[in-house]
Amino acid sequence: MEVLITRKLPEIAEKILQQKGFKVLVHKKDSPIERSELLKKSKYADAVIPLLTDSIDKEFIDNLNKCKIIANYAVGYNNIDVKYANSKNIIVTNTPEILTDATADLTMALILSCTRRIVESVKFLREGKYLGWKPMLLMGMQLKSKTLGIIGAGRIGQETAKRASGFGLKIIYFDKIKRPEIEKSLGAKKVSLNRLLKVSDIISIHTPLNEATFHLLNKDNLKSVKRGVVIVNTARGEIIDEIPLIQLLKSGHIFSAGLDVYENEPKINKKLLRLPNVVLLPHIGSATIETRSKMAELCAKNVVNVLSGKKPLTEVTV
Ligand code: DGY
């Protein structure tokens, strides 16, 4: 049986699959596979391990002949038409839990970088502008006693809340469901989105991207954020409408934004690139050696299970 991996992943994936006697086809270039090549190579594959940069849409799914599983190398699966795949008896899996800590850590890194103006300060020093200690130089925001508003208090949102609470931040959250775990252990309070936007000093996004969360933060509701707020997004770029975000960053109403994801990835809005009060990262939320290896391992194990007639470990259900 044949498994297509659409980009070079940590070795463990290939190893597991080869040990089980599967033929593994890997797109070895470190750039997204061309659409035509993707369609050609997946046509007779029994399993496909795609990346979040591959669009697994109706055309792709209709082109498959034998595929039993699409094992996404990501926890987010907005790149896949899961319903359609399921309607063709193809199982879809993702990589939950194993990237929770890495992403929550990076969220904290962005919160600290934004509130303490780390990137601006490094640039200032490298440009030779540091001429001695000054009482008013590059002043930022203290975390203790401020309010962190978590949008989407699932696994990553909750881990972020735990870390933030260690810095003395008060936690509020917006979610479809109540999260008793963090209410009990951290005193977190569930609030409406409008309330969260109005009272948070820092807002961090951890909700998946779907029809309901596309432009969840938009020109109408972004106006209501507190002056001086910090906004961090390590989820998906399309959840924030970047145009009003940029305007509010420019005017100084929003103090700073820490973004790991963008609306039109990998294209970054030029206006965003020119702003001094942003910390922009190239979608590295899960990029630790440990996490990326575990993601590869989980994808391979899901494929092995399904191709040997067993249940997948982490099936996506919609
Ligand atoms: C995901 O898994 O969805 C991240 O965005 C990349 O690891």
Describe it for me?
- By secondary structure, this protein is an alpha/beta fold.
- The chain is built from 13 helices and twelve strands.
- The chain has helices at residues 12-19, 35-42, 58-63, 82-87, 100-115, 118-126, 155-166, 180-186, 193-199, 219-222, 242-251, 270-274, 289-307; strands at residues 2-5, 23-26, 47-49, 69-71, 91-93, 147-151, 170-174, 189-190, 202-205, 229-233, 254-259, 278-280.
- Strands 8-7-6-9-10-11-12 form a seven-stranded parallel beta sheet, with helices on both faces.
- β10, α11 and β11 (254-259) form a beta-alpha-beta unit.
- α1 (12-19) runs parallel beside α13 and α5 packs across α7.
- The longest helix has 19 residues, at 289-307.
- It is globular and about 65 Å long.
- The two termini are 28 Å apart.
- Bound molecules: (2R)-2,3-dihydroxypropanoic acid.
- (2R)-2,3-dihydroxypropanoic acid (DGY) binds next to loops.
Rg calculated over all Cα atoms: 21 Å
Q: Could you state the oligomeric state of the chains shown?
A: single chain
> How many helices?
13
Heterogens? (2R)-2,3-dihydroxypropanoic acid
The profile of the biggest β sheet is:
7 strands, parallel
Question: What is the percent of helical residues?
Answer: 25-40%
Strand content: 5-15%
The best one-word shape is: globular
Give the topology string: H per helix, E per strand. EHEHEHEHEHHEHEHEHEHEHEHEH
Annotation, overall tally of beta strands: 12
Whole-number average pLDDT? 98
Spatial order of strands in the largest sheet: 8-7-6-9-10-11-12
Distance between the termini: 28 Å
Secondary-structure class: alpha/beta
* Low-pLDDT runs: none
